[in-house]
Sequence to fold (81 residues):
Amino acid sequence: MVESDCSLRESINDVVSIIGTLAEQQAEFRQQQAESDQRFENLLNDARADRALNEQEHRAFREIFQTLLAEISRIWRRLPE
Fold:
């Protein structure tokens, strides 16, 4: 009986150790997942900022181009036929 009790205690200790290891691994995984989520969020925010900047630059280009075309048209009308 004593030998089976010892064996049972060893098995219980092994199971407790495995559970502890799994809990540590799960905590590490959650930390890594949180870090990955944060990096993704940062990249997404950077992409949104880049897109907004590109849109502003594109809008400015269109406005300048329209002004240029209007100026060319004005000069063209002033030329003698």
Remarks:
- The chain has a mean pLDDT of 95.
